[in-house]
Amino acid sequence: MKTAIDRRDPLTQPQGVEPGYPQTALRWPSQPLQRRPLTASELSGPRDVLRRLAPVRGDLAGHGAKRAIGQLIYLKARVVDEDGAPVPGAVVEIWHCNAAGKYIHPNDSHDAPVDPNFYGAARVIAGDSGLVELRTIKPAAYPVPDTAGWWRPPHIHFSVLGRVWLSRLVTQMFFPGEPLNEADAILNAVRDPAARSRCIARFAPSKGAALVYEHQIVVRGRKRAPGI
Amino acid sequence: MARLVPTAEMTLGPFFPREFAEGANDLTVLDGRKAPGEVIELSGRITQLDGRLLDNVVVEIWQADSRGRYDAPDFSGWGRAATDAHGMYRFRTTRPGAVEGRLAHINFLLLYSGLMRHLQTAMYFELGSDPVLDAVPAARRELLVAKKISSGWRFDIRLRGEGETPFFDD
Predict the structure, then answer these.
(1) Among A82, B7, B15, B50, which residue has the fewest nearby CB atoms (within 10 Å)?
(2) Active site residue A213
(3) Nearest CA to A8 among B89, B36, B170, B44?
(4) Does residue A48 sit at the B interface (CB-CB below 8 Å)?
């Protein structure tokens, strides 16, 4: 099966330069992006990237019996293509801050406590139904460094390596009902309201020990029969 | 079947875990075995509008093997590196062979804080006829050609401003 890539509607993608996020004006190209023809180079991709990237932790909610501080959540994210077909084997990297708004990263200078039982990074592989499941704690909001008064809403970062080079997706997942979602410069850089709402997870009521959130991630590409 | 809209890309942010960015910048060895072909050191500096050297930019590459094949069993063709405090990324890889209809090239993808979407470009070893290179205005094509230096090949990337690297959308 070959993969076909269609152009995207720009309104469903963020603007390159966002007035509320000053660094974008230093980094996004000033020249228009060049449209290129797609060849085997762009429409292929590493079949088994796990030979280079090993899985990392499937559970961020604590070390063994020691539970990380925060609201326990269970995340069920499904990776599908533009036909809605699951993408089994997709490599999904997930990272987020702790329940006080602090990342494990050495560059995070936010004055918030580290939780010794929380390590906010996982690399998991999508199963046959494209599903990635992760037990973790709900991340907190935090102020963006070097900006006046902009707080990020709680969010979880996703990096997805799909079937081909052009399926690559790095995005963020937000939580429903968070007041900070309305003013976030990153979420609101997506101008289409429907596309924006698809970046917000769905709360799925359950009777288990954790709050369950469901999310769908759509990577680029549709299957195409050979010869078409 | 109704088509689903691809999820919006969003910035990598400043806190991509260090361990994710490490350990995948040597493409010459796979599963403990050396890939066939000429080994090259590929490095470059990444800067923004004001010339500042950018630390912790995540650079991913995708390329054919030395015989011009994608996803060969003995060469995965995919790698990832992050820039250091001097804005430098480094890969060790094999020089790709030319794929039918294309000049030898390496695809680049950049992820960084302040980049709302990832940026895509391609690196060449020389100018010539190539459908992707031809999509770039002639005066800017030279910016996609790496320079031969004593330690290998050097490909600097300017995100914005003078000498801005051409980027692709597709």
Answers:
(1) B50
(2) no
(3) B170
(4) yes
